[in-house]
Amino acid sequence: MMGMTWIFVVVGVLASTTSAVPYPGDFLPTPKSYSGYSLLRTEPLLREDLARSLLILDGMRGIHFWKYPLVNRSSDILTSPAQLEHIQALLATLGVSHDVIIDDVKDLLAKENDVGVNGYSALEEELERANYAKTLASQDSRVTYENIGSSSEGKEIGLVKISSGGGNKPAIWIDGGMHAREWISPATATYIMSKLTNKEPASESLLSSFDFYIVPIINVDGYEWTHTGDRMWRKTRSRNNGRCIGVDPNRNWGFHWAEQGSSTDPCSDIYHGPRAFSEPETLSVARAIKARPNIKLYLTFHSYSQLWLVPYGYARNTRPVDYNELVRLAQVGKNALSATYGTSYRLGTAPDLLYPAAGGSDDWAKGSAGIKYAYCLELRDTGRYGFLLPSNQIVPTGEETFNGLAAMAKELHRTLKKQQTRPVGGPYVNADKELNSPSGGEAEYKL
Ligand SMILES: [Zn+2]
Questions:
Q1: Chain centroid offset of residue 370 CA
Q2: Does the predicted TM-score (pTM) go above 0.85?
């Protein structure tokens, strides 16, 4: 595999841009600079009202929450030099102490990419590498590339299928790049693609038991924008008929959509969109998943925090009836991951470990698509670099995650074999309710 730098991982993203609509403010002369921005970490917010008071900063110019303010945990806030005093004054008024954990993120941005900084030169190099998935498909008969839909800006959303031999094998679905700035996510999905096709015995063995479907970058527009416009962009790039662009794609899935942990404000980074599956990116991926009923395991990659999240995330105390089985399989994966480099992950539901967040893809995969084993992995790190993970961590992150996946797949294969004599199918609730409702984007949704 070629040099592992951040610019490598654009897979087919830029392959076919058509009909991008110009929008005021789109064409910055240079990418947004984060020179002088610093990252603050508050002490744990001991009361609900403290968290709420900090939330007034959400969506303000020059301020980005890397970790949302929530009761009983610290909040990470990236701030421009112009806003620094304002935030520090607010924290002082609230009696909340803080540390400056990154002085100037510009230094990290330089370190993150050892070929060049974010910008057009990097973009040009990406264009050369844009067709990794397609190249792989042309070189290896086991790999097929499919365009499963177009983004808001008209870019292809690429799905790679890796399958050896015929037959109707159970399948594993992996996706990444839902949130634009979480670069380690598409990089890890891409790394797994390269591992699965390296013809080594471990990969061959996995391919003898499962087919793999991989969408390395769901949010193709946002991902490009983190290279050309704003490194800290999280959402899609859809136009909301208003002052703010983009929807949080991981609040946009049609299972308990628009409930806790998402926002009605189009300017918020956790805006859930005007309706479930309003975004062509989430709709295309959901449709592709539904069309493949043999998927037994769903994995989605995010960053950061090193968490292995088990459904459901939409509210507290909403564990699925087979929760313990999901935890048992996750434990196998987590142990193998940690055994690689000692990287530790915490395992549990999002409300247990973080906060409730409704409209996520793993909840939908479990609750609506009926995929028994569905997980969301928050990859490296725990906040030292956050989204700006240095490029020398791409390969180790890929290796450990692949090892976790491989161990889990083996165990799942054993489990499925045992089940062959028993009826298969999971107890799941609420399937398709949102997809079939008028607000669920069902009009465009052909299953
Ligand atoms: Zn994310």
A1: 20
A2: no
